[in-house]
Amino acid sequence: MLITLASKKTTKSAYVATSYNLIDTHILKSHRLANHFFLEPPFGSCRSVREFEKFNRIGEGTYGIVYRARDTKSDEIVALKKVRMDKEKDGIPISSLREITLLLRLRHPNIVELKEVVVGSQLESLFLVMSYCEQDLASLLENMQTPFSEAQVKCIILQLLRGLEYLHHNFIIHRDLKVSNLLMTDNGCVKIADFGLARMYGIPQQPMTPRVVTLWYRAPELLLGTKTQTTALDMWAVGCILAELLAHKPLLPGTSEIQQVDLIVQLLGTPNENIWVFSLLPLIGQYSLRKQPYNNLKNKFTWLSEAGHRLLNLLFMYHPQRRATAKDSLESSYFKEKPLPCEPDLMPTFPHHRNKRAAPLAESHSKRSKV
């Protein structure tokens, strides 16, 4: 599938193309994709959203609302993400174009699949057709009566790491990893979702805004204002997710950036300039770091094995370049010791939660909704 955006009036280029392998990011940065941009002919090879039957709203991502829907041609249940346009006066948001471009290129069992892009009667109605997952981890953690076992936690984290290794190998940083952006199917397959903040990175590294990643999962270098962003951002978030699954509650639930830094220091100790020269970061002057010489991870997880503590410590290294990579983490002895990770198809199912997300088909058919 090729999505083509053409302009009747442009200054630097008369043509912007988005495909599996091509996007001119310089053009995207220098143009606001105005309302006179249109999909042709008249909407390229994109199907109409009228070919989908919307059932119910199942979530809201960074840049759009997500519905459960049925493809009337194939009868497949899909997730239909309506691209948010409410604050955008100049057409399709750049963030949505980035998400579309990245997802069209990505094919991995642990990454949500973008099947196609469909359109409404006007350009302002743009939808992403994605693989449907029955639940997200955040909702499960809030509603499940029995917490995940350690074997199940290992199964989830291994799948997350495999998806991340694929992303990082393809020079993509997700930049918004958190439990609500991890979906799970009924057969236990974990998928990384919501790529609205994702970016490609390369050499030389380009500066990026530090105000990304939900606060609880934000790496210390981001909190201190770094503009050099690497895959280490995602790995810090993996550490937070692993700890949250093990503890059955968020590890660092700060309510402000100042409190978030303080919680990190309380947990890991005050960073050492000999290990990480943090005093050169732009926002360091906004913080007064408490003197705390101890790493309290062991006190937080007294029952965790040495291998488990070792993995957490590597994921929570202050210096981004010393932080464990996805590839390193997959080789951790933590995943090779008992309890061993369970197989995905042996993960528990959550019919009650699934039924809450999925309105009964009979009711949906009788109350057909237009998107």
Number of structurally distinct domains? 2
The total count of strands amounts to 14
**Overall 3D geometry?**
globular
Sheet with the most strands, sense and barrel status:
6 strands, mixed
Radius of gyration: 22 Å
Tell me the name of the CATH homologous superfamily of the largest domain.
Transferase(Phosphotransferase) domain 1
Q: Give the number of helices.
A: 12
Structural class: alpha+beta
Strand content: 15-25%
The CATH architecture of the largest domain can be given as Orthogonal Bundle
| CATH domain fold name of the largest domain | Transferase(Phosphotransferase), domain 1
Mean pLDDT: 81
Strand line-up in the sheet with most strands: 4-8-9-7-6-5
- Helical residue percent? 25-40%
Low-confidence residue ranges: 1-44, 359-371
What does this structure look like?
By secondary structure, this protein is α+β, with helices and mostly antiparallel strands. It folds into two domains: 3-132, Phosphorylase Kinase, domain 1 (2-Layer Sandwich), CATH 3.30.200; 135-346, Transferase(Phosphotransferase), domain 1. Helix content is 29%, strand content 16%. It contains twelve helices and 14 strands. A hairpin with an 8-residue loop joins β1 and β2 (15-18).
Keywords:
Phosphorylase Kinase, domain 1, disordered C terminus, Cyclin-dependent kinase 10, alpha+beta, 2 domains, nucleotide-binding, 371 residues, Transferase(Phosphotransferase), domain 1, single chain, 3-stranded antiparallel beta sheet, cyclin-dependent protein serine/threonine kinase activity, phosphoprotein, 6-stranded mixed beta sheet
